[in-house]
Fold:
Amino acid sequence: MLSFLFRRPERRRRSAAPKLAEVLESRTLLSAANPLISINGSAPTILPFVNGKQLLAYVGPSSTQLYTTNGTQTGTSLYATIPAVAATDSQGLFNDYAIVGTEVYFAATGTNGTELWKTDGTVAGTSMILDISSGPDSSSPSDFAVVNGFAYFAATTPGGGRELWKTAGTAITTTQVADLSPGSDSSNPDHLMAYNGQMFFRTKTTDDVYRTDGTAIGTVLVTDGNFAHDTSDLFGTYPVGIVNGRLIIKREHVVDGTQILSLTSATAAPAVLKSFSNNGMVPPSLNRNITDGFTVAGGRLYFRRKAYITGEMVTATWGELWQTTGTAGGTSQVNTGTLLFGSGDYFPERPLRLPRGAFLDGAVPKFVFDDPSYQFGSYWSDGTTLNQFFLPVDNLPQSNFVQLDSELFYLSSTSLMKVSAGLTNTIEIPGPDPQLNEEPFGLKVMLGRLWFSTSTALWKYESAAADRAAGPVITSPVTFVGPAQGQTNPASITVTWNAVANALGYYVSLQTPMGLQGSFLVTETSRQFTFDSAGTYVAHVRALLPNNILTETTSQTFQAVSVPKNFTVLRELPFEEQLEVGIIDPEFPESAWVHLIDRFTGETVLSQQVNLPAGNSARTARISVPKTKLPGHHSLIAKMSTSSSASAPAASYNVDVSYAVLSVTYGSNFQVTLNWPQVTNAVAYDVWVNDDTNAISQFRRDTNVLTNSWTGTFLTGTFRAWVRAKLTNGSVTAWSVPQAFTVDGPIRIVNPAGTFVDGRGDEIFQWSQVKGASKYHLVVNSVTTGTQIINESDLPGSSTSYSSPTDLVPGTYNAWVRSRAANGTWGAWSPVRTFTITAKPIVITGGTAPSFDRTPTLTWQAGPVPMTYEVWISRRGQSAAIYRKTGLTDLTHTVTTALAPGEYDVWVRGTTANGITSAWGTATRMTIGFGPANSTLAAVGKRLLSWNPIASADSYELYMDYLGGASAAQQQIVRLSGLTDTSYLLGASLPAGRYRAWIRAVHVENGATFYSAWVATSAPFTIS
Structure:
């Protein structure tokens, strides 16, 4: 049997273990675990993958060095150095950090002491953010967590103690959030956890839990504990996890005992899920039960209860495994009775060493933990039962379990161990190097592979595998998942995919905003997952083929969207240019997006993010709607969901956003008074009146009206008035929507007028107000069809507008209006108002994709009414037609004159039988030539380049850059054309070092030469 030749350290003597029913596979060599990366004879620390780079760190005697790596020694490059030693324990460094966007925030010890630093994997992007404790004193940032683009952390200043801080990566954004222990005293924040847009944390000094929105005034006590004298996390009050959209807090109190609390939103009052008594024990004695080991797995939060301790030694370890789904009814004990876990381990090192992790095995998400005394083995639970599985006694876990694909790994004191799916077989993975004689540690996944450390190097385990076949095609979800009618959130999320030939099953997993669900092994081609929260999800599926061969993994990113109930637009605020939206839905999150969509064209007029205060009653927010965004958009659909995309599932509400500000009051002797709402911070108003009858602009203009009304004298005619406010800061508001009125003359229709595109005019009929009118009568006829469209004779006298109940089709129309006096007599009809609606632009649906087809077949959508169509093609960016066809009756047309290679603009428009034409709309781009290159270029061996054939290629061009190594870097060290094969053997004279190569296809047709896009190697490669 092969094994790692590790030195076996002295083991602590354990009590006798019973004989185990161990099931082992044959321990044969699976693959080489080779030392790949060593820096100055030491193993570097694995940092996160950010900004497209995998980072490493080496802590030396005089500096901390930061590296990028591709997983090889030659591909590991130093990019930044932090002077002065960063820490004495290189593996402890960087275990606490925050990732914000493309940057990592962390603590490092430089010439300014231990302070806040950042890096994005480049030398320019690596710097100290702020010397929080100025000079050589250290602020020692720690306990990082991220919410709303800010990293929160604990830091110390001489005059302020250790308090909560936040940063967005710059000195100016790095500030103390709140001084909860004033002066030089410290609140000692820790256990930071982001939830529902706010940061929750414990103050260790007082054993309380606070939440904050990032401001001192927004830092609020959530719940108080009473165990502040203790320093162990076995005791105390702090957030422990998020499950099914609920924040769980463990609270310990002298009187109340231990409570498990749940919050349904950041501002909700904590609800008690479960209470445990103190067993009559009163602190400061440590003789009490404990609740610990909190771990989220498979939509459940697991924890241990109880371990009875005396002093600092475990004298009687026994426990209960509990789980909660976030509700009181969903909180229960998993095991029946108690578990005897043995005794003798030093406290508080690992009394039960719980948890070890969450193993997602097949269709069962398993919570896995073990007993370090190994008297009773290791355990897993699915939330309803407790089960044992067995590990070899001579290779017990000395690390947490780490999952890679469907297998579970851990480090013993001598070996890397693998536990198979089903937790039935255990394999020792042997090491090939006889000089490897020390205990491995630091088991992690990096760059999709399993890594561990010794004191001298990083090692990689990569199981041998054949070339993988293409994975299944995920068919849904594609873009969005929304809730069913009347629901706030999706009940679940179902991922489906196409079957793969000869597949025995499929591994499927789902990355959610709350973590990973998977990998599940299923035989069907769909899998239902639990909805965690609104946000981005990524589904992964791969097929299991005979002989345990796995296909490639297929991924699909989509958004799960929450939709509010009882969504409405409450009122218009015209001078403030705002609308107020509201919902009645306590389940809907506080952050939402509101979109305004033109009701006729579908155009998105405005998208704005809002915050809705939590609560069970009406929740409202205001959105800004600048008047400059609304020409021709008076009839809109307001939509709300948690997605920034207006095309996502959403709650909708039709709203008229015309700004009805002015009102008219008639007096005697031809006097008219204009009235409008008072505007906050207004110092004066500007009144503008046009004479529409005689086409006189600024018939009246008063730029310094000091009250919110104005009176003028008008003779016979129709007039239109506007008003705007002058504010204290010297600015002015936008002009109001005009108000038309008639003085002893014929009533007039003032809107619509002229010609506009279908859906882009407001199709709202407006007329001038008539003194004493009790009703209005509106008639609209279609000149095009000779039919009457609108005949409304009971419109109220208080209104001077009417919105068409249906979308008017393209054509020419006449409109009239008349008023009825209080005595019931009708006045004369207004002069006729004629307007024309042209058809919407025709949408091209096919035939414009890049192609070598010089006579493409174009297709388009039908117009709103029967039409003939016209095709217009011109050179890209030019207006002159090089191809034009009219009188087409079908929705498809094949170009009859061959087009030369190049780029073109294509339009289609329609014309009705009555001569009404559609607008041309936006040009559709069409390329005749190569489409996108669909190939890969890879270095095979040391000097062979190979690529997939590119469709329609007659030959290929290749060039290479030498990035440096044995000689200085050189651009285009290789430049070749006329290659007809799909591989090329590089010459032996090329210097050793790193290279980057590009390939493109060439096609010659009818005397024209086409070039595909360049295809590059996915990463630089090395020639030795």
The mean pLDDT is 80. DSSP finds no helices and 87 strands in the chain.
